[in-house]
Amino acid sequence: MPSLFFLSPAKSAAYRRGDWLAALAVALVLVVYGLVSSDLGLLDTLGTVFMYIVLTQAWNILGGYGGYLNFGMVTYFGIGTYTTALLYQFFHVSPFFSAPLAGIAAAASGLLIGIPTLRLRGAYFAVVTMIITFATQIAVLVVPFTQGAMGVYLPQLAFSPRGIEVLFYFIFLGLAAATTALVY
After folding, report:
1. Are 22 and 144 in contact (CB under 8 A)?
2. What is the pTM of this model?
């Protein structure tokens, strides 16, 4: 069996075309499954898997390609989540409208923290990102408007249980496909 490293350009292009066709087939199967499935538990589990694919690909960019061991990714995920939750709780802004604002808040905090910390290398960078994660956790537990360890409870969206699962299934499926294509 020939290695991919020693294939002719024509065969290599054929393998790449096959990869894209396989990815498209998997995506089509996942879309059809999301449309026809009535198993809410599996839809929820797959939605969570897709969310973790997005987080994994984000870590892959910094850790895999950049070589930085980052323990702070959860900080930015949490900042975005709390932004959406607090905007809904205090200002009744729909999570669908506040999601872009949450991304902007997470990106802004990432820039604010990332510019000085990216000057560090090796274990220093890893330790600082871990400290930032612990400091953010303590801040969230202490600040009153986040309601400490109780967290922010939001009412259920005005959809059926299946509608909610399908909605988040497709949101995270789309984000997982987009981030995977971006990393590829």
Report:
1. no
2. 0.81
